[in-house]
Design brief:
It comes from Microlunatus sagamiharensis. Keywords: Acyltransferase, Cell shape, Cell wall biogenesis/degradation, Peptidoglycan synthesis, Transferase. This is Lipid II:glycine glycyltransferase (Peptidoglycan interpeptide bridge formation enzyme). Belongs to the FemABX family. This protein has helices spanning 10-18, 29-34, 89-102, 121-129, 146-157, 187-193, 196-208, 220-234, 241-254, 299-313, 335-342, 361-373, and strands spanning 3-7, 39-47, 57-65, 72-76, 105-110, 115-120, 143-144, 176-181, 211-215, 259-266, 269-279, 282-290, 318-323, 347-351, 355-358. The strands form two sheets. The protein has a nine-stranded mixed β-sheet with strand order 7-6-14-8-13-12-11-10-9. Strands 1-2-3-4-5-15 form a six-stranded mixed β-sheet, sandwiched between helices. The protein has two domains: 3-112 and 145-167 and 353-373, Gcn5-related N-acetyltransferase (GNAT) (Aminopeptidase); 117-144 and 176-351, Aminopeptidase, CATH 3.40.630.30. By secondary structure, the chain is an alpha+beta fold. Helices cover 36% and strands 26% of the residues. The chain is globular, with a radius of gyration of 21 Å.
């Protein structure tokens, strides 16, 4: 199969995505509007035998410009959406590289949405308890995707390589995530699959009178101070309110149920708030916030439980709690986050990760230095 890559309209891209079981929300045309500091382009793959037909693959490209030069890093977060495991990845990526090089790219970063390994909740809990295991990758997985290993080698053969962990380009997506499978489940079976602490906290929140409601755009103004409080407590840099308003407007314009805001109140006080994103059969926990006060009423558990049930009702096959880190040692600062997510009874998932192709090695290295200094 010979493939050509060319620019497609946002509407062509939306139609392609709508025909898939799901794609990452980072690979929707709307996400290009959210990331306003990048230049966005939708690209499609076309079969030479049917060049006027619909695209057989698609992706959102975000271009980050080098200072004072019309040269760009081309980034396809959690994409593109192509046949990654068909055994002919060169026929997809070679024309992509050619198209992006003509557009002025000095390097490309992709994020194949391909699962490499999975660890069930019980496996993760045993690994945490085993002092000999310090990282998730040291634990024996419950599932290995052997075709992902073949794809990894094929990417290396084509000149792609994973970015080093200390590179300055910090826009990357997590390689390890935590997911809760929903296929064939009911609210009762999902609750039964959670650990005792989660079930107790959900019950405690209900008994305390925590009320979870779905908010609108105007409620982002209430969400944001709680999010800033969370950022200060957990020591990360918060995004401004305008970012969430842009995100809401762009995603809702594409699909009126693409993003939701959930608010957990206790006796009139906002104790937790989250954003939920869905594309087809995949739902994500996107951003979360919780108050330091009234943590004992377990608003965070209550709001997560509502989002899980709503994802199931919306027809999602997976509820994605997004990134986790590998560290499993008792003094790891991120261990609590893993334990919180493991309590849902889901799976730790390793993706193939992000891969870079330097088209101009000199400019590629210069961009890395620039991002480090920022």
């Amino acid at each position: 199969m010979a493939l050509e890559v060319r620019t497609i309209t946002a509407e062509e891209h939306r139609r392609f995505n709508a025909a898939q079981p799901s794609v990452s929300f980072l690979q929707t045309p709307a996400w290009g509007e959210v990331k306003s500091e990048w230049k966005a382009e939708s690209v499609g793959w076309f079969d030479d035998l049917d060049p006027e037909g619909p695209p057989v693959g698609a992706g959102l490209v975000l271009y980050r410009q080098l200072p004072r030069l019309k040269k760009y890093l081309a980034y396809l977060p959690e994409g593109p959406n192509i046949d990654w495991l068909g055994g002919n990845v060169h026929s997809w990526l070679v024309p992509l590289a050619g198209h992006l090089k003509k557009a002025g790219a000095f390097g490309i970063r992709i994020g194949p949405p391909v699962v490499s390994r999975r660890w069930g909740a019980d496996t993760v809990k045993r690994a945490i308890a085993d002092e000999r295991i310090t990282r998730l990758s040291e634990a024996v997985p419950d599932e290995v995707q052997h075709r992902a290993s073949a794809l990894r080698q094929a990417l290396r053969d084509l000149g792609w390589h994973p970015p080093s962990e200390d590179e300055g380009f910090a826009a990357g997506q997590p390689r390890f995530v935590f997911q809760l499978p929903l296929d064939g489940e009911t609210p009762e079976s999902l609750l039964a699959g959670m650990n005792q602490l989660w079930r107790r906290n959900i019950k405690k929140a209900d008994k305390a009178g925590v009320v979870v409601t779905e908010g609108g755009r105007g409620d982002l103004a209430a969400f944001h101070p709680l999010y800033v409080e969370t950022a200060e407590r957990d020591r990360f840099t918060p995004r401004p309110l305008a970012y969430f308003e842009t995100m809401w407007d762009a995603l809702r314009a594409e699909d009126d149920d693409r993003i939701r805001l959930y608010l957990a109140h206790h006796e009139g006080d906002l104790v937790a708030a989250t954003t939920w994103v869905r594309v087809g059969q995949h739902a994500w926990y996107s951003y979360g916030a919780s108050s330091t006060a009234k943590r004992d009423v377990r608003g965070s558990n209550a709001v997560q439980w509502r989002m899980v049930r709503d994802a199931l009702e919306a027809g999602a096959s997976v509820y994605d709690l997004r990134g986790i880190t590998e560290g499993l040692e008792a003094d790891d600062p991120h261990l609590g986050l893993i334990q919180f997510k493991v309590g849902t009874g889901g799976q730790a998932v390793e993706l193939l990760g992000e891969w870079d192709l330097p088209l101009n090695p000199l400019l590629y290295r210069a961009f890395d230095v620039y991002m480090r200094r920022r």
